[in-house]
Amino acid sequence: MHPIVRTVLLVAVLLSGALALPACTSWDAESVRAFRDDAAATSAHLSNRADALQLEHDALPETDPSRPAANAAIADLRARADLLDAAVARLDAVLTEASAPSDGLTIAAQGLGSLLPEPARLPLMLAGALAATLARAHQLKKGAGSIARSLETAMRSDPNLKEAFARNADTIRTIQTPAAQRIVDEQTPGKTRVRLPI
Questions:
Q1: In which element (H, E) is residue 70 found?
Q2: How many CB atoms lie within 10 A of CB 195?
Q3: Would residue 101 be called left, alpha or beta, if left means φ above 0 and alpha means ψ between -120 and 50 degrees?
Q4: Could you give the C-alpha distances from 91 to 39, 52, 58, 71, 160, in angstroms and in order?
Q5: b vs e for 160-188, b when ≥16 Cβ sit within 10 Å of the residue's Cβ?
Q6: pLDDT tens across 166-177, in order?
Q7: What is the rounded CA–CA span in Å between residue 178 and residue 170?
């Protein structure tokens, strides 16, 4: 995605969040936790459905024409469950940061929140916690990217290191998390990847 398009999308999301703030003023922490629990339950349901479809798929003969459609349905269910899991994890981080702030931005949001009437306070604290969480995630991604770039630079100057990495590439890839693989792929020259800000 082009950096300008990504920036425009990010600004649009932030503006829509700011415009939605009045609609969120009736939420309290328990409502947010209930929303989080609903998302986790939906994710578990999608995962269970994907597992059931996988069992049905595995029972089909290899020549069955419905196998590709079943594969696509399973992949779609798993992708949706993964998206919900990521959203639940992000919401957990935001709720944790809102309840026990550790970042200056969140502490400032709480300080400002004490000046606001009660209905607007929680959305402000959640927004501050979300901003702090996103900023921290961005810093971690930049740090991991610098590690990948430094290894790439070291391998260019040291053929023995490059050879050792080539020999162990499969092992290294199996140990890396998908997020780490994405960060490494983004930093590797010659590979075109969609670069996410976080």
A1: helix 67-99
A2: 15
A3: beta
A4: 10, 28, 35, 30, 44
A5: eeeeeeeeeeeeeeeeeeeeeebbbebbe
A6: 888 788 778 877
A7: 14
